[in-house]
Amino acid sequence: MADNREILVSQDWAKQNLNNDDIRFVEVDVDTTSYNNGHIPGAVGWNWKSQLQDTLTRNVASKEAIEKLLGDSGINKDTSIILYGDNNNWFAAWAYWLLKYYGHENLRILDGGRKKWDADGNELTTEVPNPKKENYIIGDIRKELRAFRSDVEQTLGNDYAFGLVDVRSPDEFTGKIIAPPGVKELSQRGGHIPGAKNIPWASTVNEDGTFKSTEELKKIYADHDITPDKAIIAYCRIGERSAHSWFVLKELLGFENVSNYDGSWTEWGNLINAPIER
Q1: What DSSP character marks residue 102?
Q2: 194 Cβ partners below 8 Å, 6+ apart?
Q3: Does residue 7 contact residue 252 with C-beta atoms inside 8 Å?
Q4: Cα separations (Å) of 37 from 33, 34, 109?
Q5: What is the pTM of this model?
Q6: Strands 146-147 and 258-261
Q7: Distance between CA atoms of residues 138 and 55, nearest Å
Q8: What is the pLDDT of residues 140-170, one digit of tens each?
Q9: What are 207-241's pLDDT values in tens digits?
Q10: Residues known to be catalytic
Q11: Are 92 and 46 in contact (CB under 8 A)?
Q12: Could you tell me if 26 and 74 are in contact, meaning their C-beta atoms sit under 8 angstroms apart?
């Protein structure tokens, strides 16, 4: 296990590289209207609802859709993508995970995201860039980064080999609530997958939206017996918060075997006869 803080870029670094032609800043927000209200100069905006997910079936965006999105954003295989967003980089981390899944390696996240950029009084613009289109072709897909129901079922009763991390709030974990107020994606039952450890995603970030130190992050997971010798699967409700925790475990802490179960509780909580704990 080796931490990799270089996968993060600072706000000052971002300001110094806004005009670097080899870099593309990409904003991905929970609130899909935020980008149009002001964004980092030169950044393109991606809509997680319509561009990073299939709009018909419950699935991530297809290989062809991601190829088009990257090409239309002026991104080629050599482009360094700097992802950032609102809500402490929730969907920036989702986009990071998805792009890693589709094989793009040159990725980093703006530490503190939009929250810190705004708080520090940095420049915002409503001007939308028009980058030169590229022809992006995806090669090998990194299937090991994505977990499915069958993978989760293998963890049941097998704590010595697997670590199942539920990153939702304690009230969701215990079944007190099925989902946070105002959300549309619901499940029939509340609770958590048997054997899961509740480590809320928000416990990994500071008040200003930056990630906590390496030692703090290691302790958070070690205290719950989530260690690098295990195969780790993270899940939440629809997979975006768990992508944030996947990023911490896989990219920042260097755990070798970490996957994101993007079906998450909206799949498991709707399954017939699936085991649930509260």
Answers
A1: T
A2: 156, 157, 275, 276, 277
A3: yes
A4: 7, 5, 21
A5: 0.96
A6: parallel
A7: 21
A8: 999 999 999 999 999 999 989 999 999 999 9
A9: 999 999 999 999 999 999 999 999 999 999 999 99
A10: 236
A11: no
A12: no
